[in-house]
Each structure stands twice: as structure tokens, then as C-alpha cells.
Amino acid sequence: MKVDVLLGLQWGDEGKGKIVDYLAPQYQVVARFQGGPNAGHTLEFDGIKHVLHQIPSGIFRDNIKNLIGNGVVLDPVVLKKEIEALEKYHLDVKKNLYISRRTQLILPTHRLLDVAYEQAKGVDKIGSTLRGIGPAYQDKIGRTGLRIGDILEKDFPSRYAKLSARHEEALQGLKFDFDGEPLKKEFFDAVDMLRNYNIVDGEYFIDEELKKGMHIIAEGAQGSMLDVDMGSYPFVTSSNTTAAGAATGLGIAPSRIGNVMGIFKAYCTRVGSGPFPTELSDESGSLLRESGKEYGATTGRPRRCGWLDIPSLKYTIMLNGVNRMFMMKADVLSNFDVIYVCTHYKLPDGTITQKVPAMNIKVEPVLKPFKSWKKIPSGAAQFDDLPEELLQYIRFLEGEFDVPIQLVSLGPDRRSTIIRNEQFITG
Ligand code: GDP
Ligand code: IMO
Ligand code: MG
Prior knowledge:
This protein is of the alpha/beta class.
């Protein structure tokens, strides 16, 4: 057996949560491999909207194991709140949630440092979600971090004190005022709760599940254009959001990665700073934002909106080895008469290219118009029932990507999902 990977091909918020929840019955394990509470994955069914930050999106399905892998940075305080918010749905979170012993911890002082560093950057700020992601990964790479396994050790309080004292010193250097005591109490309350959860050796857990013949899906967070290596550095997150991250973030060999499912919106959005070639600062941008309800699931910030960007998608398909694609939010474009896609970039020297520049130089999008579809069918429709204009859009994109679009999403609800062929997961 192999581990399938589902990941976002743009700048995050492509609809990963919806689709992982939708596909979950085909899998026995759902695993997060990177990121942390910066993620906001929305699931909607039975008229209720849920937003998950750290818990994998298989949690609402019976008998599915949900693993938080070693590549994640986990905030116990956020996790406790997430678990409490799920209590009223009577899910067996304690039974179905597993956390790798190697998962790094986000301390309250990581969160404060995130705020202090962003403030210090002024106009150059990244637009971080301020959830402590960058500082926690800094400690991981700097080999000073604390891991979930540490909370089971007797001397955890002194390890915590040592690391947080270092953070406090840095915060004082940045002249950042804070009251650490209530934050520390909240953190230790959450850690006390966590000790009673399934803390496992994630790499062996995955290996054993694969050997038992179980199907596993790795759920990406953020999007490939936010990858720390391959994204628009420094306007990125601090982890490898691409398929390679699933190998290191779960402790699986690259040869054990199976299908790579790439998910993208029929247009583009981005939250935070950084290049966005197709960004629309006009009425079309506002129409996309309002009709797509493009406000952050974690921070509530308005998302920047723009037309679909083919060069960046070709780039992320290449980086990830995507072999099937899912198109989200096609319904939103039905609010337009004419839509555009960016087929190429024009560089400052006039060169036309489909390659994404490694340095953040300003590129101009070369746009191709398409007639939009004015009506969308209900979720019960078949792929071939999609409006001809939408099918034309799909055929054009498939020609560009050389990868089939296997699923089209037409609304936030689980049911508003049209798949091309029932066999596409295992096929
Ligand atoms: P994620 O981070 O990739 O899981 O995506 P988010 O949850 O942050 O953002 C996606 C948003 O779009 C959520 O509000 C979803 O409920 C919503 N959504 C997902 N698919 C569709 C769709 O096909 N149409 C519409 N209109 N909304 C969708
Ligand atoms: P999901 O999983 C969209 C963005 C932030 C910021 C940059 C760095 O819901 O798709 P960080 O908090 O990681 O230091 O922020 O990355 N960002 C996201 N944008 N969706 C996300 O997650 C994101 N997680 C981080 O807005 O620009
Ligand atoms: Mg999101």
C-alpha cells in the first residue's frame, strides 16, 4: 500500500478540508504532515460549518484514524479548544486522534515572538497568521524545540522554563510587553489534557497501517506556492507544503507515496503579503471576494482575489508530481459573464514565459478570456451535465496541465461535489 497525498496547488484555502472529508470514507487513516494552527480547513454538511486547524479532516467520519504527524507544529492550547468545540457532536476524538511523539510543540512565547517579529518587520511583514508557526519551526531547525514526547517526561516543566526564558529574553530585546503567567497556565492545562491522548511513534504507526493494507491519505495544509523552499520566499510559510513534505512530515519513504491529488480554485486567492500576478484590485476582485466568501477561516482577513494563474499551477503540478486534479468553487465564477485565465507572464524585459521566477520580480499576466457559465447544476448532477462553457474551461485547463480534472466542486457542502468517475481514487 502507498500513502496518497492531497495538497493545495495555490496559496492555500483551496478547499482541502471539504475534499479530505468527502474522500475520507475511502481511507482508514487521515494524516496531517506539516503546518499547524495557521491552517483553517472548512467542512460543511448537515447545514453545519466546521473549521479545523490542527485536527485532520477525517475526524467526522466513523472508524477513521487521524494522525498529527511529526512534521506538524502543534499548539496544545488551540488543540484543546478544537477538541472542546467538537464535544457537542459526540465524536470519539480521544479514540480516533493520534499524535506523533516527534511533533514539535508551539509554546505561548512562540506566538508572542511571531507578533513581535512581524511588528519589527514593519512594511516588509509577511502577513503571518501570528500562530507561532515561524518561531516554532525556527526552534525545530535550531534544535532547541520541544516535542510532544517531552510532555511525558518528568522534567518537562524545567525544559519548558528553559526554552521560554530564552524566548522572553528575545521579546524583551524587541521591547515587547506581555503577561506570561496566564498564558503559561493555559498551556499547562492543555498539556495535562494531551497526556491522555494517543501519543504514538507516527512513523511506525504509518508503516504498520500500510502493512495491514490500510488506505492512507495525507492532508496538506497551506498551498504549494507558500512552500518555504519553492514558494515566493520570504512571503511563505515555514514548512514544506509540497508532496516531498509528506515524506519527511510522516516518516515515510518517497517511494511509498501513491497518488498526488492537487486541488485548486477555479480562480486564485492569497492572504498576507507577497507577489500575486493575477490579483484584481477592481470590482471583479470584490465580486470574487463577496461571491466566494473569501475571508480567512483562521484570521477572518479578506483574501486577495484574482484570475486563475496557469504558470503557477504548471509549476506546482511539476513540483508535486500531481496525477489528478480537483477544481473547486467553479460556482463562484457563474457570477461573471466573462472570466480570464493567465496563460503566461510578461517579464519586465518583455520576455513571455510560463516559468515562475525564483526571485520576486514583478510580472504582468497575459490573459485569455472565456465565456462564463451562467447556471450551475445541483450536486446530484453528472460530470457530463456541467454547462458547456464550464466543460470547455475544464478541457482547456486539462490541455495545459496534462493531468485530468477528476472532481468539480460547486458549493461548500459535501453534496455539492461532482466526480468524473467513481473509480478515480484507487484507479
Ligand atoms: P482549506 O484551507 O483548503 O481547507 O480551505 P478553506 O476552508 O480555508 O477555504 C475554502 C472555503 O471555500 C471554505 O469556506 C469552504 O466552505 C468553501 N468552499 C469549498 N468548496 C467550495 C465550492 O465548491 N464552492 C463554494 N462556493 N465554496 C466552497
Ligand atoms: P490553509 O491550510 C492561506 C499564509 C499567511 C501568510 C503566510 C505565512 O487553511 O490553506 P504563517 O502563519 O504560516 O507564518 O503565515 O502564509 N498562510 C495561509 N494562507 N491558507 C493557509 O492555510 C495559510 N497558512 C498560512 O497568510 O501570508
Ligand atoms: Mg484555509
